[in-house]
Amino acid sequence: MPESNTPLAADQAKDDADLAENDQGPKLEARAFSHIARSRQNEKVGDFLIVAALGERQPTGIAYIPVRAGTLADIFPIRLTGASTNIAPTAITVAPSGYVVVASNSGGESEETATFAFINPITRRIVMKIPANLSSVAALSYSPKTGNFYAAGISKTEGRQSEIFRIDSSDPSSHTSVPVKVANIDQPTALSFATDGSLYVTTSPNDKADGTLVRITGDL
After folding, report:
1. Which runs of E-coded beta strand occur in the chain?
2. How far apart are CA 35 and CA 54, in angstroms?
3. Which terminus in the chain has less CB density within 10 A, N or C?
4. How do strand 32-38 and strand 48-54 relate by DSSP bridges?
């Protein structure tokens, strides 16, 4: 991104990244990438981007892109360890603790809940999976002011409406997840917090109407 506040056109990209040619690593049959988060860099965790990979209409896994001196390196699939490593990510964020949090949906018409997986960025081990108690999840974000965890998803009740939820008790020391509705938003696609604590939501309605950018303020 440019240092100024001017918009950047797609054909003005400074850099790009391709899948690395690595016979020793896991294979990633990716046709596209969606959902992105950045690591919390420290003395043990490097600076990298985390992306969800999409196959033929279905999520296939996650990959990371090292950022070195402001330049993107090759994309490498992440080989996860721990129990139940087969996840189909639909949203990614990084918790204040540094854990990578990945939402996965059950898929199809199943009434099963979506899940949150907490991944150690150093060992790449899934340390915990908990039910989201939502039918599906489209986006995740943490508030920089309160540390609260938010998800854009579809409720299992109230007519399966698209809404924004605060997810209570959803950290690696807890095995429960309690979604609390904070806003009704039609077809939310992404969440991002500003430094002032405002929550920005992008939407993509199904009725061919223009997408919108919604700003939510308050005690988030």
Report:
1. 32-38, 48-54, 59-68, 71-72, 76-77, 89-94, 100-104, 115-119, 126-131, 136-142, 149-154, 162-168, 178-184, 188-193, 199-203, 212-216
2. 10
3. N
4. antiparallel
Where do the domains of the chain lie?
10-216
Contact (Cβ atoms closer than 8 angstroms) between residue 164 and residue 182? yes
The DSSP output letter for 86 is -
Phi, psi dihedrals of residue 166, rounded to the nearest 5°: -90, 130
Phi, psi for residue 114 in degrees, rounded to 5: -70, 170
10 in helix, strand or coil?
helix
Whether the CB-CB separation of 128 and 107 falls below 8 Å is answered with: no
- Tokens 């099963």 belong to which residue? 112
104 forms beta bridges with 89, 115
| Helices assigned H by DSSP within the chain | none
CATH 2.120.10.30 assigned to 10-216: yes
- The helix (run of H) or strand (run of E) holding residue 146 is none
CB 183 within 8 A of CB 164: yes
Amino acid at 180: V
- The reported pTM is 0.83
Looking at this protein, which amino acid is placed at residue 170?
S
Q: Dump pLDDT digits (tens) for 41-52.
A: 888 888 999 888
Residue-wise DSSP of 160-175: T-EEEEEEES-STT--
